[in-house]
Amino acid sequence: MKPVADHGLVEHSHVGGRDVGIGSHTGRVGSIDPADHPVPTGKEEEWRFTPLRRLRGIHDETPLTGVAGTDFEIEIDAPEVVGTVSLGGAAAESMKGLTGYQPVDRVSARAWACSSEVFLVDVPANTELTEPVRVTVRGLSVENAIATHLVIRVGHHARAQVVVDYVGSATLAENVEIIVGDGATLLYASQHDWAADTVHLSHHRILVGRDATVKHAALTFGGDLVRIVASATYAGTGGDAELLGLYFADAGQHLEHRLLMDHEVANCKSRALYKGALQGKGAHTVWVGDVLIRATGFGTDTYETNRNLLLTEGSRADSVPNLEIETGEIAGAGHASATGRFDDEQLFYFLSRGIPESVARRLVVRGFFGEVLSKIGIESVVEHANDVVERELAITGI
Questions:
Q1: Euclidean distance between CA atoms 260 and 205, whole angstroms
Q2: 11 has a pLDDT exceeding 60
Q3: In the chain, fewer beta carbons within 10 Å around the N or the C end?
Q4: How far apart are CA 62 and CA 143, in angstroms?
Q5: What's any GO biological process attached to this entry (predicted)?
Q6: Minimal CA–CA distance to 168: which of 146, 197, 147?
Q7: H-helix segments, the chain
Q8: What is the sign, positive or negative, of the torsion defined by CA atoms of 169, 286, 324, 11?
Q9: Which residues are CB-neighbours of 69 under 8 A, at least 6 positions away?
Q10: pLDDT in tens, 274-315
Q11: 160: nearest Cα among 180, 143, 174, 176
């Protein structure tokens, strides 16, 4: 099948070149103290697309005092060989920051300070899991805002799959830290199937070990406002990180994905591929992809792509790819961004062969998402995503 036309496509690559477009990352200072992070006003670059009035104050002073068992539940289903534990007190504090991350905005810092427990999934070294570890975060109330901290640790030369499901209703500020040891492989997927009243802001930090491979997939469908910020950095040469995203926004939803690929270590690779569909008045998606190749990131190989499909009038997709390159000694770097409507040529192709228009439109959307789904590598996640896409298409009768 011919791919969806890349209307508005802006694509270029850099080999031995320099493209400065991020600016703020090199000078940004992290801190676990919320007082070090001013309350966002919406004028800041990192907040300019986010409707702050819909955050229920978790970016300001709203207490993050939701209680486990009353306002939310976290369940972990894993083989016996995998360590799963809820840590409190000094043990919890010792687990925070294992990726080297320190919060870079007020919401993340507040979540860090207010999460009294750390939920740990610990895959031992040299372990090979045949089934995914499943973590379910279930919101029970939107009235009391909650803060959580999840740590996924995969030992060296282990192979694992981890799926995190978000369901129910919540007002949630969250930090997720993912540590992948040397030579290990991790397939990670977060599925955001929230109820329509949920507000969820999350920071995902990925530390990729030497010669380790990570696939991180964010599948975002539910919620009133969901904002996922993912960043990846490397602990040794030969690391390979692939960030994938699939999202489908309905009327009134705001779904925002931001990412930073931080190449400070030489000879590492990164890829990013995010695709989204939008339908209904006021549906809004945001994708901001930042790649920072520092002066020590010799031999970096990176590429990022975002594509959006507008299914109805009244929806809006913002897409901003950025590159900042501090060395000319790289293998390659590039980005592509495209937003458009149905390709009339594709529809005509199907219709001319007797396929009804409603079926043809479904086939186009399935093909559009197929590239992302084929890369995720977790069968149950792919099946669920296909089911959700079918459900979403039924909303507009496509």
A1: 10
A2: no
A3: N
A4: 11
A5: iron-sulfur cluster assembly
A6: 197
A7: 24-27, 89-95, 106-114, 344-351, 357-376, 379-395
A8: positive
A9: none
A10: 999 999 999 999 999 999 999 999 999 999 999 999 998 999
A11: 180
Q: Token pair 């499909």 is at which residue?
A: 309
Summarised one tens digit per residue, pLDDT across range 255-284 is 999 999 999 999 999 999 999 999 999 999
What residues make up the domain containing 52? 10-342
Q: How far apart are CA 229 and CA 389, in angstroms?
A: 23
Measured over the CA atoms of residue 63, residue 64, residue 66 and residue 72, the dihedral's sign is positive
Identify residue 324 by its one-letter amino acid code: E
CA dist 312 and 308 (Å) reads 12
Q: What values do phi and psi take at 149, rounded to 5?
A: -140, 120
Q: At what angle do helices 379-395 and 357-376 cross, to 10 degrees?
A: 150
What's the number of domains the chain is made of? 1
Task: Tell me if 224 is assigned to some domain.
Answer: yes
Task: Enumerate the β-bridge partners of residue 13.
Answer: 334
Helix or strand or coil: residue 395?
Answer: helix
Q: What are 125-183's pLDDT values in tens digits?
A: 999 999 999 999 999 999 999 999 999 999 999 999 999 999 999 999 999 999 999 99
Q: Cα(131)–Cα(378) distance, rounded to whole angstroms?
A: 9
Structure tokens at 147: 């803060």
Length of the chain, in residues: 398
The strand pair at 301-310 and 332-340 is best described as parallel
Specify if 332 maps to a domain.
Answer: yes
Strand partners, 86: 119
Task: Establish if 373 belongs to a structural domain.
Answer: no
Task: Retrieve residue 40's tokens.
Answer: 């966002």
The mean per-residue pLDDT over the stretch 185-192 comes to 98
Determine, yes or no, domain membership for 380. no
Q: 8 is written with which tokens? A: 């508005």
Alpha helices (runs of H) in 173-222, residue ranges in sequence order: none
Name residue, tokens 């009035």. Answer: 53
The Cα 330–Cα 10 span in angstroms is 21
Residue type, 269: K
